[in-house]
Amino acid sequence: MTTTSSGKPLRADALRNRAKVLAAAEDVFAAQGTSASTEEVARRAGVGIGTVFRHFPTKESLLEAVLVALLERLAAQARDLASAADPGEAFFGFFARVVAQAATKQAVTDALAEAGVDAREATGRTGPDVKAAIGTLLERAQRAGAVRADIGPSEVTALLAGISYAAGRAGGSDDVLRIAFDGLRPQGGTADQAAARR
Amino acid sequence: MTTTSSGKPLRADALRNRAKVLAAAEDVFAAQGTSASTEEVARRAGVGIGTVFRHFPTKESLLEAVLVALLERLAAQARDLASAADPGEAFFGFFARVVAQAATKQAVTDALAEAGVDAREATGRTGPDVKAAIGTLLERAQRAGAVRADIGPSEVTALLAGISYAAGRAGGSDDVLRIAFDGLRPQGGTADQAAARR
Amino acid sequence: MTTTSSGKPLRADALRNRAKVLAAAEDVFAAQGTSASTEEVARRAGVGIGTVFRHFPTKESLLEAVLVALLERLAAQARDLASAADPGEAFFGFFARVVAQAATKQAVTDALAEAGVDAREATGRTGPDVKAAIGTLLERAQRAGAVRADIGPSEVTALLAGISYAAGRAGGSDDVLRIAFDGLRPQGGTADQAAARR
Amino acid sequence: MTTTSSGKPLRADALRNRAKVLAAAEDVFAAQGTSASTEEVARRAGVGIGTVFRHFPTKESLLEAVLVALLERLAAQARDLASAADPGEAFFGFFARVVAQAATKQAVTDALAEAGVDAREATGRTGPDVKAAIGTLLERAQRAGAVRADIGPSEVTALLAGISYAAGRAGGSDDVLRIAFDGLRPQGGTADQAAARR
DNA sequence: TATGAATGAGGTTTCATTCAT
DNA sequence: AATGAATGAAACCTCATTCAT
């Protein structure tokens, strides 16, 4: 993501400003919600409002960019864990870490949802990246018998969102995370369990 | 909720309008999010904007009223199930029903959170009602061995919120609900499981 | 002023309400300025808003009525003093008393001026009454040599308004009143002064 | 007043617009009273409503700015006369000129009073400037025996306000001004008078 | 006649976006 | 490319006035 939509490479200073704006936006939206003003983002970034709009022609595109950045970071974390020694630990560790980061992401996910933009469409090719990375973690954990076999990446992603929400808003304690983990593990008395024992 | 804050009973027509506004607000906020305009609510209700503000002097108070109405409805449903024959079925049935209704409630819960109002405080005495009713369902299900014994109403409520969110936003299928249910059941290898098998 | 504009006599209870509203309006406008809401007047009067509008079909007419009532009271006070023993004392005493009451009257005078209504027209036949009563006091004081001879009721009224304003807003002390009095007395080196020394 | 509250100098075009808005506000408030809408001010200034609020973030701050501008102008006029040849003429000339300008100033003074803002506080350091300049004029006139010795700047200011009000509202003729002048001159039978005759 | 609920124009203020500097 | 002033639509809310009860 080092070029504009027009495909032309950005000058060094422009690139630096783009990064400053993005970082500021992440902070501001996390702190004040997505209804924070674009001007506030500019102020925090230390640039003029015009500069924000030069890089992100609408507020929605700014929110989208923040979301993409977050998802990219998540995907990277997932890929880092893809070759960990203990697949189960890798999977659940990733899950827990995402939930812990939820406060910020929540704001942005909400925003896009509210703006009437489907998150999956907005995130373009980043969404699949995350899903693919999660899929890898999931498969390894399932093969190791640490996670039930009858679910796929979509279910994991949805559950991740829900538990993150609970953690951010409902003041959910670790107990909620524990319940989710128990639900994700192979369940007793089923074919899953048999597979887990193998 | 048939009186104003001043304690005087409302005239029949006023009461009817209040209900119309509340219903419209529920629809509008569910459909467009809580940033929908008050004027849109008035339009949908078929009343003048002044009427909305007569009944709910600020937008926040309108959002609050919508939330309270929703919670009241939930509490009533929970109470209805408190004496059902099968406590486990009652508990899980309630959970599933709430999640199914989630689209609307989500909008409002978000709104209050964003508005800086603590949902638990805003809902005044309605929140406790819901929690109490859920507590009753939970206890009965735990005593019957249908639900794990190491959680309380707070965890259930938080999980309810999270799964509802997943259902409303992340397009969570029934699989997510199934995972949550499995996590809520007595877990293998513990005293709970023994109780469950009895 | 015991009839409506339609000429029909008011029922006893209607008359009582009219008086209550008028008194409340005086209080409210004096305390909060003329931008106070009509609803506030109704509340203070202990009647419904509809009742206020039944008696005074517009807010302007209510302000006008308050002003008329005030002027009537002033005229009565002036008439009471018309036969006082000392004409000079009567004149200056009246002047001082009016200024002391100014706070309330100010609000209303301003209001009418702001509302684009010419005070002289609005007050209809009451204005002349006041002016006539002031004229009588003035003439007697002039004949007694206590007030300069080269001014008429119009100048006295204007000065009265100005000094009242100063008293109400500019925090004018008694000194301002003293200056006005000195300016109103027969001035040195003229026929007036001779008369004053007689 | 060539900078914003943030201390940064304004761009040339912004400065021009600020002046246009201020001038328009003076006109509009003078003509229609302080309850005139901000939109009317924008229309008269030929700018968008947003521009008005960029320069004056609330209506009250706009009213305040108009008042400050007026007081500054008055202070400048007073200072110009501070070294005039005839101190008495300077003092009374100033007084007369202020009264002649009264229509506009009245509107604004009223406004601030109504808005619950103490004019003296709101005007910051401009109020004292005016009073100081008036004080200089007064002292010189008193030393020259043209004005009575037993009053100070506060009394002059209050009287100024009152007579201005009379001139603007009550249709006061020059006679009222004459009365005030006579009251301000050294009064017969006192040390003042002796000084005046010298 | 009295009441107060309903109305909607209009007021202040915010903010995403555009454009001159 | 960067800036920030200008714009105006739209939001929330008030209040004089009308009208059904």
UniProtKB/TrEMBL annotation, chains A, B, C, D:
<dbReference type="Pfam" id="PF21597">
    <property type="entry name" value="TetR_C_43"/>
</dbReference>
<dbReference type="InterPro" id="IPR009057">
    <property type="entry name" value="Homeodomain-like_sf"/>
</dbReference>
<dbReference type="InterPro" id="IPR049445">
    <property type="entry name" value="TetR_SbtR-like_C"/>
</dbReference>
<keyword id="KW-0804">Transcription</keyword>
<dbReference type="InterPro" id="IPR050109">
    <property type="entry name" value="HTH-type_TetR-like_transc_reg"/>
</dbReference>
<feature type="DNA-binding region" description="H-T-H motif">
    <location>
        <begin position="37"/>
        <end position="56"/>
    </location>
</feature>
<feature type="domain" description="HTH tetR-type">
    <location>
        <begin position="15"/>
        <end position="74"/>
    </location>
</feature>
<dbReference type="InterPro" id="IPR001647">
    <property type="entry name" value="HTH_TetR"/>
</dbReference>
<dbReference type="Pfam" id="PF00440">
    <property type="entry name" value="TetR_N"/>
</dbReference>
<dbReference type="InterPro" id="IPR036271">
    <property type="entry name" value="Tet_transcr_reg_TetR-rel_C_sf"/>
</dbReference>
<keyword id="KW-0805">Transcription regulation</keyword>
<protein>
    <submittedName>
        <fullName>TetR/AcrR family transcriptional regulator</fullName>
    </submittedName>
</protein>
<keyword id="KW-0238">DNA-binding</keyword>
